[in-house]
Specification:
Elements: H1 2-32, E1 39-43, E2 47-55, E3 62-70, E4 77-86, E5 89-90, E6 96-99, E7 104-111, H2 113-118, E8 129-137, E9 147-153, E10 173-177, E11 181-191, E12 195-204, E13 210-219, E14 222-223, E15 229-232, E16 237-244, H3 246-251, E17 260-268, E18 278-284
Antiparallel strand pairs: 1-2, 2-3, 3-7, 4-5, 4-6, 4-8, 8-9, 10-11, 11-12, 12-16, 13-14, 13-15, 13-17, 17-18
């Protein structure tokens, strides 16, 4: 009994000190964080977008807290991100919302961190978020947008912005690497939902949006169209996949993918008159 009393007494004596240490640790952690300065993306006669804060630890992912305003008297506007990137890597956020005439709304712009963490970008590493915002009339898609432009958010300060650099791997299969674009096959895998997938790393070295696509695709000698067409913003990179669904393979009695053929094409998505950056046949042997 005496020993038990002594233990309880020690616990009671240590509790305040532990509480003080926890409070101090929390205060030090908050003190180390740079205070976020809100970013006014746009504030014109038709609309306003202001990034009020960031929440790296939101349960849904890395989140920007945005305040949106529709200044129109009679039109409903759709606020969306046409494209976005994190540290130079293309990443689609969860964001698209309608705002009624004359109204405001507080909305989240959220990035799923799972794929970014897979390539080494953690929440605390996010230093440069680029968003291509687009605001337009929800009831008239043919009308010109009331706002469309690129804006940056620097959670760690603009001076601390960094760009992602992928390290080459021994297993890489370089399909093309010229002055305009790079395309590298990084691996092969089977996904229960998406089917057979060829993972590919894309780089756009130009100052225009580049569209990457494939044509005349075949698997084991059977024509089979995959799901793949991806645009990459100027100066950005992307991790994407060329995928064939299971039903396509089953229709051709393909149980093991032994060879893949297609024509890889990359071109200026803003000027179709330009020559292709690449238009060449590709032959892959996943089982080799």
């Amino acid at each position: 009994m005496k020993k038990l009393c002594m233990v309880l007494l020690c616990v009671l004596m240590l509790a305040p000190a532990l509480g003080m240490n926890n409070t101090r640790d929390k205060e030090e952690k908050e003190g180390d964080m740079e205070e976020f300065e809100e970013v006014v993306v746009v504030d014109n006669e038709e609309c306003a977008i202001v990034i009020k804060d960031v929440d790296p630890d939101d349960m849904w992912g890395y989140t920007l807290k945005a305040q949106l305003e529709n200044k129109s008297a009679d039109k409903t506007y759709m606020f969306s991100a046409k494209s976005a990137s994190v540290n130079g890597v293309m990443s689609d956020p969860f964001f698209a919302t309608e705002i009624a005439p004359g109204m405001r709304a507080n909305k989240d712009i959220t990035f799923d961190m799972d794929d970014l963490e897979d390539i080494g970008i953690k929440a605390e590493d996010v230093s440069d978020i680029e968003l291509n915002f687009r605001v337009y009339d929800s009831d008239d898609w043919s009308a010109d947008p009331v706002y469309e432009d690129v804006s940056h958010v620097y959670p760690l300060g603009e001076d601390n912005a960094t760009a992602y650099e992928r390290q080459a791997q021994d297993t890489d299969e370089v399909l093309v690497d010229n002055d305009m674009v790079t395309a590298i096959v990084t691996g092969y895998r089977v996904d229960e939902i998406w089917g057979y997938m060829v993972d590919i790393f894309l780089v756009n070295k130009t100052d225009s949006t580049v569209m990457f696509s494939v044509g005349d695709a075949a698997v084991n000698g059977y024509m089979a169209d995959p799901y793949f067409a991806n645009s990459v913003d100027p100066g950005k990179c992307a991790f994407e996949s060329i995928s064939w669904d299971n039903s396509t393979l089953e229709e051709n009695d393909i149980t093991e993918v032994e060879k893949i053929n297609f024509t890889l094409r990359a071109y200026d998505d803003e000027d179709f008159a330009k020559d292709d950056y690449v238009n060449q046949p590709v032959a892959l042997t996943p089982t080799a």
